[in-house]
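WARN no homologs supplied; continuing
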Amino acid sequence: MTVDAETTVIATGLEFPEGPIAMADGSIVLVEIKRGTLSRVATDGSVDVIADCGGGPNGAAIGPDGKVYICNNGGFEWSEANGLTMPGEQPDDYAGGSIQRVDLETGDVEELYTHAEGHRLCGPNDLVFDETGGFWFTDHGKNRARTRDRGGLYYAKADGSEIREVVHPLLAPNGVGLSPDGATLYVAETYEGRLYSWELSGPGEIAGYFGPGHRGVVLADPEGGPLFDSLAVDGEGNVCVATIRNGGITVITPQGVHHHVPYDDPITTNICFGGPDRRTAFVTLSGTGQLVSRPWPTAGLELAFNG
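OK structure emitted
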């Protein structure tokens, strides 16, 4: 990979990294989807496995109890082409998706949710906590040779007491985030390459909600056919979406204006903010198995339980 002057390679050899979390000690906790682990990347680039999650750990976030909550998509088939690792269809050993909770101290993995309102979770992808300790998450679904699941948007409580399907169907929903004031929810749809927004009236509640078919406002629909992956919101309310095909980070303002920060890896999957004043962007380049960083012009949003 060609590295520009602003980009620093922190770690290589990762097995499809995603879900980065910037920790107070300077390390990055992330998932390795192909490896099936929650791992920690130290500041010197060394990698230690925190927990073996199995399946396909995907999005990750710190919850109100200090544990890491993981969207486990159930795993993929994998292939290699042109020096890139690529996820594929539902694997033969697929047993369904789940929401997991991992103790960072012990590495213990707890299965928190496997179903919502009687329906099996298919491919949970990404999550974001609100200030009350509840979290929104997306279910991307799974692809098979001739069929594809319809995904959805869900809300759940961290204590395991409640999970609700809020919007269904969505076409492969992926990244999810909240605006700085917590009043707007953003969801990226992968194959359509669109960013949707919903105004919220309270924790887990969409304003003017009329049922599971409640579609969001299309905030951005960039030309060129990018595939949208996971996202992070900065302190000014800009939504920073990782893109596949035209690898990089597409920065979208609350008004829908966007620009692109390119990376050489066409499978750029996620971004988080850390470092002094949260002005360092940490980006997962999953196709080439790298974690990289670069200075960012705006400070990242301080997340609910990862201050």
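The chain has no helices and 29 strands.
OK
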